[in-house]
Design brief:
Layout (H helix, E strand, L loop, with lengths): L1 H27 L4 H30 L1 H13 L2 H26 L5 H23 L1 H12 L2 H4 L6 E3 L1 H6 L1 H8 L6 E4 H11 L4 H20 L3 E3 L9 H12 L2 E4 L2 H9 L4 E3 H7 L9 E9 L5 E5 L5 E5 L8 E12 L2 E8 H16 L5 H25 L3
Parallel strand pairs: 1-2, 1-4, 2-3, 4-5, 8-10
Antiparallel strand pairs: 6-7, 6-9, 7-8, 9-10
Helix pairs in contact: 1-2, 4-5, 4-6, 10-11, 15-16
GO molecular function: hydrolase activity; nuclease activity
Cofactor: Mg(2+)
Pfam family, one: TRAM
Length: 396
C-alpha cells in the first residue's frame, strides 16, 4: 500500500514538475528558438526529476500519516470536541469564502494563491477555537433554541460528590429543607462508589457500601436523579464533577476541602456540608452557663474535659473531681484554633463561691477569712491554669 502510494505520488509530482518547467521556460524566453528549446528542456527535466523524487519520498507523510493520526484522534476524542471542531471549521471556511473575492483582486500571484492560504488558516483557526470553546458554543445554542427550563441546564440542582454521600449528613440536611432543588448523582460517581464497595480494603469497602445504602435511603425518602453523563477525556471524578457542574450550571455538594477550593476557583458554586455544620454551631461566650458530662481527664492536674453537642472540647478547671458525672460549668474563655475552637470553663459551685466572697467584700460585710482564703486559693489556682492551658491542651 505504501509503495503504491509512493509511485502515485511520484507520477503526480513529476507531472506537476514537468508543467512547472514549461511555465518557467516560457517566462525566461530570449535567444534563438533552438536555444530556447534547449533551455526549456533543461527546466522541464530538472524540475520533473526533482518533483518525482520528492513525491516518492514525501507522499506517505502527506497522505497516510495525517489520515492515520486523524483517524486515531477521531476514535479517542470526545463527541463534543469533534462537534465543536467541525462547527468552528465551517465558520472559518465561511469567512474564507467571504474574503476570497476581495483577496483575488490583488495583482500578480497574490491574487491566485493567497485565497487558498487564507482559507486553510481560517479553517485551522476555527477548528482550534471550536474545540477549546465548545462548552460556551453549545450553551449559547441551547439557550437560543430551548425554553427557560433547558436554558439553565440543571440550574438549581445539586450534584452529589462521593464524599458527601459517604458522609451521610446530606440525608438529614436534605430532609430539613436547607438544600432545595433536585439532588443529582452523576453516573461516574456511582461507578466510584461501586469500586469502593468492591474494594479489597475493609475500610474502603465499608465506606462504599455505606454510600450505596444512603443513596437508597435518599431515593426512597426524597428522590434523586441519576445523570448519565461522562467525560472520557477528563481524568479523575473531581475534575469530571467540576466540568459537569460548569456545563449544567449546577452546584456541587461535598465535604472534600480540596474539591471545594478547586471548584470555587473555577467559579462553580459549592455547598459544603462541613461549612453548614460549622455555621450552625451554638455561640458560646464567657459567662455562659453550660451543663455537660465530664468524660476524661485534662492535661493539667485537676482538669476535666467534656464536649458540647457539636464536638467542641470544653476544658473544666477542677473537673477531675466530678469525672464521669454531669456538671454545671461557667465559660471563662473561648480560644479559636486551626481546628475550630476550644472552650475553658470552671465548675459552677467554685464560680458561685468566688462571686459571693467578692460581693461581700464590696458591700463591706464581715467575711470569714478562712473561707475567703480557701476560695481565693481555688480561684487563683484556676485562673493560673486557664492562662497557661492553651499551649498544653491544643495538642490533645
Amino acid at each position: 500500500m505504501h509503495l503504491l502510494l509512493r509511485l502515485i505520488g511520484m507520477v503526480v509530482a513529476g507531472a506537476a514538475g514537468w508543467q512547472l518547467g514549461w511555465v518557467l521556460a516560457a517566462l525566461s524566453g530570449g535567444g534563438t528558438q533552438h536555444a530556447a528549446e534547449n533551455e526549456a528542456l533543461r527546466y522541464v527535466l530538472v524540475l520533473a526529476l526533482a518533483a518525482a523524487g520528492l513525491g516518492l519520498l514525501l507522499t506517505p507523510y502527506a497522505t497516510v500519516v495525517p489520515l492515520r493520526r486523524l483517524w486515531r484522534f477521531s476514535r479517542t476524542a470526545a463527541a463534543a470536541d469533534l462537534a465543536g471542531g467541525a462547527a468552528g471549521m465551517l465558520v472559518g471556511l465561511l469567512l474564507a469564502a467571504l474574503a476570497a473575492f476581495p483577496i483575488s483582486q490583488l495583482p500578480g500571484p497574490l491574487g491566485s494563491w493567497l485565497p487558498a492560504v487564507v482559507a486553510v488558516l481560517l479553517a485551522w483557526l476555527g477548528t482550534a477555537l471550536g474545540m477549546s470553546r465548545k462548552d460556551e458554543l453549545f450553551r449559547a445554542v441551547r439557550t437560543s433554541w430551548t425554553g427557560a427550563r433547558q436554558e439553565g441546564g440543571l440550574r438549581g440542582a445539586a450534584l452529589l460528590d462521593t464524599s458527601a454521600i459517604v458522609d451521610g449528613r446530606i440525608v438529614d440536611v436534605r430532609r430539613s429543607g436547607f438544600i432545595g432543588g433536585d439532588l443529582t448523582v452523576p453516573r461516574f460517581v456511582l461507578e466510584e462508589l461501586q469500586q469502593l464497595a468492591d474494594s479489597s480494603d475493609a475500610l474502603r469497602r465499608r465506606r462504599g457500601r455505606r454510600g450505596l445504602d444512603l443513596l437508597e435511603r435518599l431515593r426512597d425518602e426524597i428522590g434523586i436523579d441519576v445523570l448519565d453523563a461522562d467525560f472520557p477525556d477528563v481524568r479523575g471524578v473531581d475534575s469530571k464533577l467540576i466540568r459537569l457542574a460548569r456545563r449544567e450550571r449546577a452546584a456541587i455538594v461535598t465535604t472534600d476541602y480540596a474539591l471545594n477550593r478547586v471548584a470555587s476557583l473555577q467559579g462553580v458554586p459549592v455547598l459544603n456540608v462541613n461549612d453548614l455544620a460549622h455555621a450552625l454551631r451554638p455561640v458560646v461566650v464567657p459567662g455562659d452557663e453550660l451543663t455537660l458530662d465530664i468524660t476524661q481527664d485534662g492535661r493539667e492536674r485537676a482538669q476535666g474535659v467534656g464536649f458540647l453537642d457539636d464536638g467542641t472540647m470544653v476544658v473544666v478547671e477542677g473537673g477531675r473531681r466530678v469525672l464521669g458525672q454531669r456538671a454545671d460549668v461557667e465559660v471563662t474563655r473561648v480560644l479559636p484554633t486551626s481546628g475550630g475552637r476550644m472552650v475553658f470553663a470552671r465548675l459552677r459551685d467554685v464560680a458561685d463561691a468566688t462571686d459571693e466572697v467578692a460581693a461581700e467584700s464590696k458591700q463591706g460585710m464581715p467575711v470569714d477569712k478562712g473561707a475567703a482564703a480557701a476560695t481565693g486559693a481555688v480561684a487563683e489556682r484556676g485562673r493560673l491554669r486557664v492562662l497557661r492551658q492553651p499551649s498544653g491542651t491544643e495538642g490533645d
